[in-house]
Amino acid sequence: MAKVVVGLSGGVDSSVAAHLLKEQGHEVIGLFMKNWHDDTVTISDECPWLEDSNDAMLVADKLGIPFQTVDLSEQYKERIVDYMFDEYASGRTPNPDVLCNREIKFDVFLDIALELGADYVATGHYCQKKTTIENGKEVHHLIGGADANKDQSYFLCQVSQKQLAKTLFPIGHLQKPEVREIAAAQDLITAGKKDSQGLCFIGKVRLPDFLQQKLQAKTGDIVEIDAQTSRDKMLEVDATIDSSEVDELVTLSRKRKYQPTDGEKVGVHQGAHYFTRGQRKGLAVGGTPEPLFVIETDVNTNTIYVGQGKQHPGLYRRGLFVTAAETHWIREDLEIAVGETLDVMARIRYRQTLEPATLHRTEEGLYVIFNNEQSAISPGQFVAWYQDNDCLGSGVIA
Fold this sequence. Notes:
By secondary structure, the chain is an alpha/beta fold. It has 9 helices and 18 strands. It folds into 3 domains: 3-211, HUPs (Rossmann fold, 3-Layer(aba) Sandwich), CATH 3.40.50.620; 220-315, no CATH class; 317-396, Translation factors (Elongation Factor Tu (Ef-tu), domain 3, Beta Barrel).
């Protein structure tokens, strides 16, 4: 049997993961990651870290396993929080959960576990791991969770072969109701606990309050773009290119660029860096036949561009681009060369249904062209691609 360090978050999923590992005969140690100190930006009744830490300790006590808390707040601030501020300031939308897994759970935390003599780390993620031999070499596969509604492989789309080799996902083969049933049967305090919806290991956060710690409010215009103007902008882009394949990829992936004179001012906001594409809430503009959605932001002019309704053409495009530096392959054995293509299934956000797409590798990076138009493709977010529920890789959307 192996020595396994479990990242106990104070939630039901990691609690059951620890129980199952102990039941299998492994030597199990519970570690709680303390990633944040500032409670002023968290909502106190939505599982702040102190409550989670206490629940994790009670679970460890119930299971009869050693437990300790590790303070990773310094690393979390440097690698996650500062990155978030920089991304929002530049008009991009980061995904802290993906980054937390890559930079904290499967890097800093993994190193701590290995220093404790662990053979593996384990988490309560709804995903699965399979190991095969490909061309004489051991290859680890990141497989989607059996519970399609809870599949969290997207959040782990930046992990490496080295990290997967040392990782276990004890609940990935289970459905969420089964996990709660196991917790209840073991009388674990977390059995009925509500799932956390906040930032990774921090808790529920008021994002505008969080961002305003460093990004100052700055009044700007909200400009409404009508559907026809948005279509015309796409045609303008088309008219500037040749008919070569690369240029077609560029066209399908290019963001529309608006000017304040392209539409009508309908309101004001407190900072373009607080908003992201596809956002509906927080605009405080009413009186339109259909709800307004953010279709583009410009932090240079501090302007938000909006359009009416979910079907506004400004929300949609078929392609996106990932620079070579931001392209990551979990399945290194399947990485395509420059000039090659690969048919995959892909998603641009958690819980999105996988969509058919084709990867096109160029010298500059990777183009992901979907069969169907996608809504609210946001720079800074991650695109992940799969084959047969096997996450092959991912990248940051440029």
